[in-house]
Amino acid sequence: MAKAVELAKLGLGHTAPNPAVGCVLVRNGRVVGKGYHRRAGAPHAEAAALVDAGRRARGSTAYVTLEPCCTHGRTPPCTDALIDAGVERVVVGVRDPNPAVGGKGLRKLRAAGIDVTIGVGDADCTELVRGFRRWIETGKPWVHLKLAATMDGRIAARGGASKWISSKPSRVLVAHMRARADAIVVGAGTVAADDPRLTSRLKGTRDPLRVVLDDRLSISPGARVVTGRGGCLIAAAPSASSAKRRSLEKAGAEVLSLSVRGKRGWDRLLRELGGRGVHEVLVEGGSSVATRLLRAGVVNSMTIFYNPRLMGSDGVPLVGSLGVRSPERALRLETAGVSLSGDDIVWTGKPA
């Protein structure tokens, strides 16, 4: 199952609106086939593993991270493929959260005489489909907030320069985060200060949709987020300049009349992205965007990279005002893990 999870990770950021799934076939203690879902419309993980195994699939055990589908979509049901191939046992990580499938695939396999075990490696398999599950249940994507700061909580120097606070190994980790995400959200200030590409920069990965929060349409039509690969969506106030809108659209961006302020604004944006099949959003905005996001209460998970340097009180703070009047009312965070990346301390968790 661990190998199946690793295979599934190769599909993250490519499969929406489908989940990322991995499958390994084992017979007589040896791996005879493996596969993963590469992109929507491509063969599912089970089908790819069966092709890889060929005749060796008969009598094998299939380890699959998510319950095999039993419905006809762009591809035939995986349950039928496993049954027809003569697989004797199926080990499943987690049940499919999609009500059209959940439990039905397992029942169909058992009705065909196949031994089914569920719950093996369920923590890792659940993590794989976090975005898909949230999208199925709410119509909105999973929101992951990423920040990088010095040890005194500064994300940029007094003039706004922020390259590079985190170490090179941490920037590689961020590239993997971008490769997993279907969309990246930043503020206009980040675009103006850094002119980032916001691409994954990893070979063989898809560049996510770039989303810029820019009420006044202040960013340049020549900004790399606008002209680069992957598409650019700009959320602007309805009152924004029509001339600026036309200029940005001519440069290749799509301008959405939507001011992202407060919980209602974020909810509208997330529903818009969910309607486009986005499962996971990575927010890389600066202090202003992070503050607005945290105050709206829509963050599902967080990563903060702390670099062992001090910037001083005139640096840009990690977050702005959260309206906290006493320590007891501070926004509490729940720690999931702490690790090292180069010189950086990497904290992962979520709002409690």
Describe the structure.
A nine-stranded mixed beta sheet has the order 11-10-9-8-12-6-13-16-15, with helices on both faces. The protein has a five-stranded mixed beta sheet with strand order 2-1-3-4-5. The chain has a two-stranded antiparallel ribbon with strand order 7-14. α3 (78-84) packs parallel to α4 (104-111). The longest helix is centred in the C-terminal third of the chain and has 14 residues, at 262-275. The chain is 30% helix and 26% strand. It contains twelve helices and 16 strands. The model has no long low-confidence stretch (mean pLDDT 93). β10, α10 (242-250) and β11 form a beta-alpha-beta unit. The chain has helices at residues 2-9, 45-53, 78-84, 104-111, 122-128, 130-138, 168-180, 188-194, 224-227, 242-250, 262-275, 287-296, and strands at 22-27, 30-36, 61-66, 89-94, 115-118, 142-150, 154-156, 183-187, 209-213, 232-236, 254-257, 280-283, 301-307, 316-317, 333-341, 344-351. The chain is α/β, with parallel strands linked by helices and 352 residues long.
Summarize the structure.
The chain is an alpha/beta fold. Helix content is 30%, strand content 26%. It contains 12 helices and 16 strands.
Instruction: Give the strand order, joined by hyphens, for the main sheet.
Output: 11-10-9-8-12-6-13-16-15
Count of DSSP strands? 16
Beta fraction of the residues? 25-35%
Order of helices and strands: HEEHEHEHEHHEEHEHEHEHEHEHEEEE
The low-confidence runs, each spanning 5 or more residues with pLDDT under 50, are: none
- The class by helix and strand makeup works out as alpha/beta
Backbone CA Rg: 22 Å
Give the helix level as a range of percent: 25-40%
Counting DSSP H or I runs of 4 or more residues, the number of helices is 12
How far apart are the first and last residues' alpha carbons, in Å? 30 Å
Largest sheet: 9 strands, mixed
